[in-house]
Amino acid sequence: MNTKKFGWLLRREFWEHKGGFFWTPMVVSVIMAIITAGSVAIGVTKGSEANIRINGQVVTKLADQFSGEEKAAAVAQFANGYMASAVPLLFVLSFTIFFYCLNALYDERKDRSVLFWKSLPVTDGATVLSKIAMALGLAPLMALLFGTILALLIVVFISLGAAAMGVNIFGGVLSSAALYLAPLQIAAMLPIYALWALPTVGWLLMVGAWARSKPLLWAVGTPLLAVGLIAWFNKMLAFGWDIDWLWKYIVGRGLLSVTPGSWLAYSPEDLEMVGRMKQVALGPLLAQTWQQVTTPNLWIGAVVGAAMIYAAIRLRRWKDEG
């Protein structure tokens, strides 16, 4: 594959979908930052009227509520969990990727721009792969970048608010290794996310390359209707089939795998581990994430997704009607 041509294909995808992949996370980040800054400012200015409670008691002077050990523990928990403020951006990312993949091959047939792109010396495989690289590579990285900036801004706002109430946590937070490791730990989960999301990405691309109209109805309605009919027949005729398995591994994996962290729902012990955690810690979560490489669920889904991506490439080669 010509890397220079592939680079231009990636630029094309970014330019055409800059609103979803760049402006949307930026706007969401700005709104969340403004809300957080306003909330901190209100809390500081109202003081005792804010009815802040710690251990059931109303706090009027925050500095009196923390001993040295309590302050260190609070700072450690804050430094470990500050990236949780970026979670809304990750869910916005999942919606963006879902509709991007669904319409990526459909829209170019609808407006017949596919005829122009096919006239260029670029293969169908390279074109489809550039869309996958955009969805599972550059888009998550951009979301992580905005999420990190947002989380750091929130750290600054909360630290300033604490300082205004008599507690200085700047030094403890800035000296915590967790503050700097957290974005890297999330970035280390992205390869697993890319593999895990392949069934949904492949399904949406294939439907978008095939459907003549209403791709959303075909993509979502087909698995829901199929499993719904199977569940009805199973109930009426008492076949004893495991319908929950179909909902989880066909509908769930087929439509929701682009949701970050959705792999934890397929490992009950992972969910129990997260529930038992006393504080947000990305280290154990990163370890649990990479343990997915030892599960057949990840690799079977990746193979099925790759097969559907291949089908999407073939369909793009054959279908060019509007």
Outline the structure in words.
The protein has 322 residues and is mainly alpha-helical. It has one domain (3-318). The chain is built from 14 helices and 2 strands. The chain has a two-stranded antiparallel sheet with strand order 1-2. A hairpin with a 2-residue loop joins strand 1 (53-54) and strand 2. It is globular.
CA gyration radius, whole angstroms: 24 Å
Give the overall shape, derived from the CA principal axes: globular
Please indicate the percent range of residues in DSSP E strands (runs of 2 or more): under 5%
Oligomer: single chain
Task: Kindly state the number of beta strands.
Answer: 2
Strand numbers in spatial order across the main sheet: 1-2
Helix content: over 70%
In N-to-C order, the SSE pattern is: HHEEHHHHHHHHHHHH
Q: Which class of secondary structure composition applies to the elements?
A: mainly alpha
Give unreliable regions as ranges. Answer: 48-60
Give the averaged pLDDT, no decimals.
85
In whole angstroms, how far apart are the ends? 29 Å
Q: Biggest sheet, in brief?
A: 2 strands, antiparallel
Number of helices: 14
Summed up, the domain count is: 1
